Amino acid sequence: MLIPSTLRKIVVLVIGSTLIILGLALIILPGPFTMPLVVLGLVVLALEFAWAESLLIQAKSRVKKLDPRKMKKPKPE
Predict the structure, then answer these.
(1) Neighbours of 48 (CB within 10 A)
(2) Partner of 41 for a Cys bridge, out of 18, 20, 26, 52, CB 3.0 to 4.6 A?
(3) Exposed (0-12), middle (13-18) or buried (19+): which is 39, by Cβ within 10 Å?
């Protein structure tokens, strides 16, 4: 049983958008898993949409450039 293309795109859009919105809401609200939800939402959206795949590739390249040593906050003395 194949799902029609339009219905599949709608389902992917709803699931991916929901994950991204939850991830963004967790930036403001207390909770873990902020960025993984946003990335997972992009992965889901990239299954059907080229623009999401492009955003995912950009995000991956930016993450590779991050230096974890620079992200540490200095300890107060």
Answers:
(1) 16
(2) 20
(3) middle
Instruction: Please return the burial class of 58, using the count of CB atoms within 10 Å of its CB with bins 0-12, 13-18 and 19+.
Output: exposed
CA 43 vs CA 12, 22, 51, 75: distances in Å: 10, 15, 11, 36
Can you give the pTM of this predicted structure? Answer: 0.73
Question: Residue 71 domain-assigned?
Answer: no
Residue 16, pLDDT score: 94
One-letter amino acid at 55 equals L
Number of domains in the chain: 1
Helices (H) and strands (E) in the chain, counts: 4, 0
pLDDT (tens digit, 9 = 90+) per residue, 24-46?
A: 888 888 777 778 888 899 999 99
Q: Considering the domain boundaries, does residue 77 fall inside one? A: no
First and final CA of the chain: distance in angstroms?
64
